[in-house]
Amino acid sequence: MEPLLTHEGRLLEGTVVDRPNRFVVRVRFDDGAGEDGGDADGSAADPARAYLADPGALAVLRPGRTVLCSPVDDPDRATDYDAIAVDADGTYVSLRAVLANDLFERALARDALPAFAGYAVERREPPLPDHGRTDFRLETPDGDPAYVEVKSCTHVEAGVGKFPDRQTERGRRHLRSLRGLVEAGHEAHLTFVVQRPDVTRVRPFRAVDPAFADRLAEVRAAGVGVHAIAVAFDPPHFRLADAAVPVELV
Asked: Which of 34, 186, 229, 233 sits in a 20 to 30 Å window from 142, CA-based?
């Protein structure tokens, strides 16, 4: 199958040192790339700082693991690299939550998602009828609008993808909006994009955010569609690994 997306920049392999804050991971590169370029005597350079486009807890980002980073040439940036993916025991896990929407849109455009067969993207980030925005407004095969909120998931335990990995008031607010859409007579969906292939099902991470788990069950009972897909990163390509991962509400 053709890739959904291809990373166009260089990919440098490094080792995770630590994560000083939610948006930065420090990485040591074997080739000496770093903040000072290495010492004259050949000693290792200071760790480089890479930007994390995923503010989640990211338990997968453990010190000592291999991470792929892409150099960024921007003097206005506080970091010289973007963190792209981390190797979790032989499985690459994407570190770019912002890709979830693009991956969903590409899969939809190929008509590769059974839950959305015959649907087409009408608009990204459309305004909602009452207030706020959601990720997509689709056109159904019958020509009606359907709203979709997309969530990136990277936390997997024994094949179970769990969301969220950090408490999310924003996520709970999105669920309220989806329920409001259904109650107003519109079609609405939530789709988890699991950015790793080693997943057999998805569940809400009740131990982290019980209110989100409760609300997810409520909105599905109210008629919101709840779906999940899985994507594999085979550098430099992102491919659809599973177009219909089961979602269990517990």
From this structure: 229
Count the domains in the chain: 2
Q: Are 206 and 164 in contact (CB under 8 A)?
A: no
Are 56 and 79 found together in one domain? Answer: yes
Same domain membership, residue 106 and residue 67: no
Range of the domain at 90: 5-94
- E-strand ranges in 35-124 read 48-51, 66-71, 81-88, 91-94, 120-124
Place of tokens 């000072």: 36
pLDDT tens digits, one per residue of 50-105: 999 998 899 999 999 999 999 998 989 999 999 999 999 999 999 999 999 999 99
Q: Give Cα separations from 4 to 90, 99, 238 (angstroms).
A: 21, 11, 6
Other CB atoms within 10 A of residue 80 CB = 18
Q: Is 250 among the domain residues?
A: no
Is 176 contained in some domain? yes
The structure's pTM equals: 0.92
**Distances in whole angstroms, Cα of residue 246 to Cα of each of 37, 123, 200, 225:** 47, 27, 7, 12
Structure tokens at 141: 């095969």
